[in-house]
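Lab meeting notes turned into a lecture example. A postdoc, R.K., suggested we walk through two folding results consecutively so the class can see how the record format repeats. The first protein's sequence and structure tokens come next.
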Amino acid sequence: MGILLGVIADDFTGATDIASILVREGMRTVMSIGVPAPAFDVLDADAVVVALKSRTAPVSEAVAQSLGALQWLRTHGAEQIFFKYCSTFDSTAQGNIGPVADALSDALDAKIAVVCPAFPKNGRTVFNGHLFVGRQLLQDSPMKDHPLTPMRRSDLVALMAEQSAHDVGLVPHEVVSAGDAAIAEVFAGLTETGQRYAVTDAIHDEHLRSIGRAVRGHKLVTGGSALAMGLPANFGISPRKPVERASGSSTPPRAAILAGSCSAATRQQLARARALWPSRRIDLDAIAEMHPVVEQALSWAKSQPADRPVVIYGSADPDEVEANQVKYGREQAGAMMEHTLAAIAEGLVADGVSRLLVAGGETSGAVISALKIQGLSIGAEIAPGVPWTTTLSDQPLQVALKSGNFGGPDFFERALDIPA
């Protein structure tokens, strides 16, 4: 028997995000890092999430990775494909959301696909086709200063149309509020008039569940992770009773926090963490000048008490980020920090760290790749969209991968309060 739902996620934090939602809604879920090997064991999974690092990759590379994931998922029986991207629609004018969606849609011969990045519990809502972050339009939110994917427009219909080769329609809030039958009727109308995509409003969870019911039988679904909450019921799956977790051991595991995200949320979380635990900042100029940054950070970490988490971060405020990008180039500045934090992660794990919190999508991708992690099981949820995970290996490592903008100010404290 094959899997029911196949998910293609464009970064690693987003993959753990949607996997945790599917688990909460009752789906047995396995997550693969990268396109799975032919012999990857799906066990008795209902859903397989393929975590790619394609969000900021060259368009051709992102499309190729996504089509590779699609082929594997279809070979293993996936009845529906979900292309998962960020709830803030992180992309550039060239993509990669539109080109990847087009490639998947063409390969599946999908007549229409929903476009809905809404995640109300994290303040992401869509109204009249415009994406809001809290009370701000996306273009007015801190996302306008994202170092890799600055989002300076909020009109999702226009954004998707610019990236895609196909026409884009809108399912407005009054239709969504009328329920799944009304939504499905508008989907059918858009299909008849040649619209390939339907940007769909959603301002609370019940809207997402209605949209989920309306896309039953659709070959392709695209959106943020919260949209997945409405899909398991289409396969006759309902939430299971949570498993009670054993209390933690008397000796806490060694833990480390690595942060590369420069989002306002992560910077606020870091400010609290630095007041609580030993911390060390990674300086981009020192990396560029070939100082032994990794070795120095690992030596420092070893000198700290083993029962206290260490905080190592490269996060900076928007002015410093902009100055570094001018000095080193946008892509190069990001890559230098990601590679350095990934190398530090390798050293920390080799030195006995068994709990690792990583903040930032690109940083998470670099860390997971450096640690050669191939699969993850999904554990306790720390905050909406952010679970603890455990590596599928002989020497399990607990990892939490946090999108930069996710979580409240006390996120790191909440995470480490959850028993290992």
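The second example is placed directly after the first for contrast:
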Amino acid sequence: MNESGFTVLMNESQRIELNSNEIMYITGLDDDLLGNPSIEDAFDKHINQSNFNLLLIHEPYLIDNLLEYPYDLALSGHTHGGQIDFPFIDTSLLLSPSENKYLMGTYNFDNLRQTTLYVNSGLGTSRLPLRFLVPPEITVFTLD
């Protein structure tokens, strides 16, 4: 990723100045299953109520422990939207309860910042190399 020119945010925050001269912070946490996420290391003390603050987390269930931090929007993936959706069969039983909680789409929280979590169903698969009735997804957000 770094060799391709991306900035990888692994337990760190990046200050971004927008074209409007407003400041936003983007915070990225390490993977929960294969890494070591640490909001204490990632959270920049300059983040405040006047900034728009974006949080990037791989596993959406992490949001439950992060709602006390001042983030407006959290973007996540990991679940692939469940990958398989058979009509009339509860396929959520294939996932752990924490992975099934935020499967795909938008979730709004009644916390201090009214945080929104968006879970993208992605393009690929995980354990089983197939998808059924869960369309692949690429989402484009425009922040200006």
